[in-house]
Amino acid sequence: MRETPRSQGTAGDAEPVLPQPRPGCALAHTTGASGSGSPHRSDGRPPQTPRGARHTDRHGGPGTTPPVPGPPTVHSPSAPRAPLPAVFALLALIALLALCTWQIAAHGPLRAYDERLGRAIADSALPSPVAGFLADLGNTAVAVPVLALALGWAAWCARRAAQPRGWLTPLAAAVAMAAVPALVVPFKALIDRPGPPGPLAGETGFFPSGHAATAAVAYGAAALLLQPLLRPRLRRPLLVAVAVLNLAVAAGLVRRGYHWPLDTVASWCLSGLLLWTVFRVSRLSHDGRSNPDPHEPRPPRAAPGDPG
Prior knowledge:
About 10% of the residues have low confidence. The longest helix is centred in the last third of the chain and has 27 residues. The radius of gyration is 39 Å and the shape is globular. The chain contains 8 helices and no strands. The chain is an all-alpha fold.
């Protein structure tokens, strides 16, 4: 029952007025109010807005608490960029190639040191048959079939793994191999450098070395093709073996008197630019593959009936 205030008398017999409970106070917990014992709002609305009663904001975006104006921002995926060390390595290759070409064409001091070093290597204790074998590893009859085998295996593995862009890397490697004579032959004709003393003495057109470029691109591209197919512990030894093999080919070429040292260095610079292109295409191809790495552990599958 609602209490009513008593009438006030005179100043002598006045009694204090007791507080009166009133229903409808905001967030009241007073006994006797409507919904006693639980918080309630003074405007008669429920304490929480039902999900279906929420309205979008003025820009059409979903309503949130606190409200965020405008629709949600969606960032489009950007293409992978080359890391900064790779950019510096490319610039270094281009600068070294330009330096070698300039010194050889202008008969600079670097050319004199190069010829002195070449004669010293030609007179070294490396056996001539071993040097000839190492030099022959740069022939197209030896290096190109190795790359062809790697191309076939990589294409077959990509098809078996149902990679959507698995054909990109083998195609890039084949184009890089075809680009070797297209780049080396004009350089040879432009510089027209005489050969070292030896079986090819008196001839010209030795800068850069076609054998060194063929070996670097063929074996390097084969390593890039095979690296994702190998176990992680075998990938680094493969790259080291390819680097040592190219050094051995260059040593054999200089020891047998087929080229000067800077001829092979210039070929490595050209090959590095081609192999970097193959590497970037390989990264692009592997970013969109359905089975990234057969040797990487896969996440556990959710049991039937689990929410996630």
